[in-house]
Amino acid sequence: MSELAKSKVAPKVVVVIPFYNGSDTIERAARSVLDQTIPATEFVVVDDGSRKDEADKLDEIAARMGFRVLRKENGGQGSARNAGVAATTSPFICFLDQDDFYLRHHIEVLADAMPENDSHFGWVYGELFEAEKDGSVVRTSIVSHHASHPKTNIFDLIRYDMHVLPSAAMIGREAYEAVGGFDPQFMGYEDDDLFLRMFRKGYTNYFTEKPVTVWCIHTESTSYGIRMARSRLRYFKKLAGSFPDDEIKRRFFMRDLLIPRFHNLIMDEAILASVGELGKYETYKEEYIQIANEYGAIVISDKSVPRQLKRRLALHLSLINSPRWAKRIYKLRPFIGVIRAVKSRILRI
Asked: What top-level class of enzyme does the UniProt entry assign (predicted)?
């Protein structure tokens, strides 16, 4: 018997699943919610503008399994989550992506890890299983190996991906509503943005090493492709605007935190698009290159960035914008790892 069952009253929890043309996995996700050891008080699936055939399939599954469906125009995962929260009242919120699924004790474990009397409670979150799209487990621990937990300082939150997934968290409604929920401009990085804003408002967070969710990673997910690239640039811009350098306190957010986090991700995609090596990059070639150009312009204009780094960045951008030369450089890719290792020691990126 869990500590919750012994001494606590089970919290009232709503589970919100954003849905978009995901009839092949939604039944698995919904079943994992309905099979919880502590049942959700409310359970809603938000159809974010799916095709008619997909919407019809969702209705059939909902009628058979007994969960509520809301519908809205397509606006992205963040806006769908916001709509689900707005249509419910439970004081605690759990999210689940349509292609992931909960372990049976998801709500119970997170409730156990939540303090009883914290007037500043923000969220509690747990470990993840990683799995293939079909649910076949790859590993039983992810977040503990890729980030520090719980979150204790803003510099860590800006410099690194948080590895706090809404699908593995229980969030206090007060904290969620205090920051306005998810920023709908993002279709990638919306998770980090939400938890960063709650942290900045003074809401607390707690972590349990017990896994609570199975995260199914596959190349069709939003972690890949042009939508993520667009959101990456938007998030970079938002952070750059929110955290200007502070010379008095010697805090150089652009140089020490933002460039190390985003530089290689943005520039590598632009290089692949420029040389046309992979179809998914070539399809949006001009946009990937434009993203790199916008990123470069912001970095080069920052006073704290070393001149040597600016010169190198300008050279890289000129190559990316000249595909003939970019292809020649790309042939040297076996040496990129060595070059990057040297560059990181010199330029801290």
From this structure: transferase
